[in-house]
Design goal:
Elements lengths: L14 H5 L5 H20 L9 H13 L4 H6 E3 L8 H9 L5 H28 L16 H4 L3 H19 L5 H18 L1 H21 L9 H8 L2 H13 L13 H9 L7 H20 L3 E3 L1 H16 L3 E2 L2 E2 L6 H11 E3 L4 H40 L8 E5 L22 H6 L13 E3 L16 H6 L31 E5 L12 E6 L3 E6 L23
Helix pairs in contact: 2-6, 2-17, 3-5, 5-6, 6-8, 6-16, 8-9, 8-10, 9-10, 9-11, 9-12, 10-15, 14-17, 15-16
Amino acid sequence: MVSSSEPTRLGSRTPCEVSSCGVHSWLIAVAYLILTGVALYPVLSVDVPPLVDYPNHLARMHILSAWHDDPDLQRNYVVNRSLGPNMAMDLIVPMLTKILPIYDAGRLFVAATLLLIIGGTITLRRVVVGNVGLWPILSFLLIYNHAFFWGFLNFLFTAGLALFAFSAWIALRERPYLARIAVFSTVVIVLFYGHLFGLLIYGVLVFGFECGRAWRDRYEEGFSIAAWVVTSSQFVIPAILFFEWIARKELATDTINRFGPWVAKIVALISPVHFGQALVDFPTAVFLIVVVILCITRRWVTLADNLKLPVIFLASAAALMPNFLSDVWGTDFRLPAIVGCVLLAGVETRPIAWRQTRTIVSIAVALFLVRTAAIASHWHDVDAKFSEFRNAARSLEPGASLLVSQDRNDTPDGVPGLYGMTFWHMGALAIIERSAFYPTLFTGHTTVDASMDRILINSPVGTPVNRAVLAASAIPANSTYPLGHKLSRYTWLFWIGWPENFDYVLTIRFDNKTNPYPIRLEAVSQGSYFDIYRVTPVPSGSSKLTTRRSARGSHGFE
């Protein structure tokens, strides 16, 4: 039952929402279809979307789907089938590879991620306001956000599911208790295994909604604790699963939890539109800030009562989130874009601001088209480079081990500062092309780990080694720490004495074309921005240096 004192009723429509601010509903539907097609164009027009972590994740999907039939993969990796709270991609993409090539299956998952966020925003608005209207169009400016730039796909996919789940919770609020408990207990299990932060989003939104509902209905007869019992009971099974997962994973004593520098908070604040394209990201951020200021000061819009507390609670969670949470980096910039989507789902235009709304949406559409064109152009450039490497990687021996070197400051002139990061995990594509061993594949805390023969030259998380370190670490005796030394919970020294442990070295360079260690590296393939070297045998008469330590296991959460 909805309180009679509640100004905004579920499913009610203001005059503006009925007319969609003077725009015919069929035109709005066409606009959403066209904008969705534009949003998906960058993803569907390339083979490998150049999101920072995506090649690494895609390589893991290939291992999961091909491991049983590939002896080289079996020699390099082991597969861990146990479930954990970060597995949306791991559960879906390997199934898609049964009918699609791995690159197509990956792109389909990325496209589905964007569709879930857009669709979840639209669905939530339809449930809360009663009409889709124009305001959710602004959510298209938020889908290419900083979490997407880094390739946090499990999180974003599950966050989109969380928006749909929250919409269903509101829509089914008056259904029988037992039916709701059964349905949403299943829903939250799906969210739990998709990504723990997706479940967090859903939980915060539901808690905020129920708090608001309880406050509005506090004077009504029949208000009961039963509503809270139904709300909380759906989270019982995920809580049990979470503590079971904690109990069986290796607990580290050096877990990192910190808020990070003030710059990290600025990045988190602009993260909904921060995609490494300053020329279009900055105008988009300015536009959205101006819109917020005008809407508040001129009172052009109101926010549906049912979403006021959910938005406040989720925004508070985003503001309080540290930069590192239990060793997971980037937790502070994951939620803001989702906060923006929920906010847009609840915005209602006052009749006095119909014209202003149409103007705002028109500018937003223009910005979105320009921004998407810039992103697509950048992606086509990087995808062509990825394709060049994929072709060159086919010259590697199957199952060979590949070390990657890249200097952080070696980038082309005139490109964004984050450009070089998109190549950090490009070497993982050699796993798909040649079943290679790649030392910084996300392992241990995922469904894949390094084999016992490779564990010493593996690191659960890592980035390319720069040239100076490559040259300095070639001889183990020159290193302060031994091979496999644990720098942090997820980062181990895998490059010490690399000439004795790796078959090839890939150097990613845009300026420095020199051989980083000519005494042991022989060029076998040269690209426009990379070189592939074969590691040559120890010169005759030299003693072979080996560094061996006991193998270790790793379990955690990213």
